[in-house]
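pls read this protein:
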Amino acid sequence: MHLFDVTTIAHGLHRIVDVLGNHCYLVEGSDRALLVDTCGGIGNLRACVEAITNLSVTVALTHGHDDHLSGAYWYDEAYLSPLDGGVRCWEKVEDHSGRIRSQVVEEGVVSADTPFALRDGKRPQELPLVDGQTFDLGGRTIRAISLPGHTAGSVAFLIEDLRILLSGDAVTPIMCLFFDESLDIEGWREHTLRRMQELEFDVFYTGHHDHAFPKETLASFDAAAVYAETDRGMEWQHSRLTEFRGIIHLCPSETFDADSVDFRAVIDHWHELPPRRRRKRTAQQS
């Protein structure tokens, strides 16, 4: 079964996509490589990485969610912001990833004997990741950038020579701010969108999309945030982890295709929705 798709998107930069559509990125220098995120744990990610490079690999994680952390169980250690990490983080990863794996086995997406990191590997040692931390790969430097919003400890990785930002879930077309650990919409605008505007990069890549987003598109994400702050919204629930729910705001757009580069939606924290306003009926209508 083909469990990973690998694409080289720039010199020494490879995108790895698992069978569930989760993305991670392998960045090579002359001396070392940095693996940014580790997908959802299904399939032997380490074997996939070792087929791409023979360099020693350091693992660094954008934030503390199972679709980014689970493959780290193939490795001995991984960098993660202390704001997201800790024992409770890894316990959630093991619960969520295990439940999702059971579902996709039942659905026939993978078989029961498909390699699974949480079963076949072990919980990695967590190393602290802080804002401004650099990784010298030899002829290439990667800088960690704190971007709170999706989670309090969300971090992006700036490949300085390529002017590419690996942003995880910090900014996505369906912006998820419904988790307990998520900031509110204004907090996301302040600490993620405005900070990204100050960074020197040309494009960013997310944890769930193949295409690059030019820096200029940040204005459209900010417009979506402004719209969501006053929009009534609709109730929303996660399709697999049904305890996750929120209020989704479908922002004005020329498309309703969620895979389009132009689609914009924001899911914020669950709250009771106000009653819909009823239109007054005219005498002619009655």
Observations:
- The chain has a mean pLDDT of 95.
- The chain is about 20% helix and 30% strand.
